[in-house]
Amino acid sequence: MKRKEKFFGLAEEAFEFTVPRKGLITKTEIRVLSLMKLDLRPGQTLWDIGAGSGSVGIEAARLFPDLKVVAVEKDPADYECLLKNIETFGLSGRITPILGKAPEALNEAPAPDRIFVGGSGGRMTSLLDYCQEKGNNPGIVANFATIENLAEALEWAKKQKMTPDLLHVQVGRGVPIVGLMRIEAQNPVMILSLFREEEA
After folding, report:
1. H-helix segments, 45-169
2. Which of 17, 126, 149, 157 could cross-link 53 (Cys pair, CB 3.0–4.6 Å)?
3. What's the pTM value of the predicted model, to 2 decimals?
4. How far is CA 141 from the centre of its chain?
């Protein structure tokens, strides 16, 4: 019997994404943890920067029907996948896709309450500065595969006097091997959460 599609924690295969770079889609387990760290609320606006296939923004929109999502992607092939996924999940009008480079592509976007950074295009500091300036004291969650990009974000947080919350995730998935099961390691990901203390 075929398993019913999950409401939350969709498998990567549920999304259209560019085949030559399959590893770049946010893996299910990482996506779930990132959304937990975003601590979204109804009626908020989420910026999904470096959206790729849009998996994070799409999962968020499915969880909160009145959440506004702005998904920015600079790669034309990935952007086409983003458009297809928005249509597939019936989220046209709920997610605003933008083809372009952040932060410039976000100039006309509504101010964010939460920001997810899946890719910075090598412009992490300027991107974080822009997000802080344009947002409603936004909470920021960023995923990193490299130490160098993480270090840049941590240095930015230090200058902003923000206390970072860092989670290092190493997921292993069971895969069959000659009638048995082994664990196949996925690439480790570092999830950085940056939230300002709310003023009393």
Report:
1. 55-63, 76-88, 124-134, 147-159
2. 17
3. 0.90
4. 8
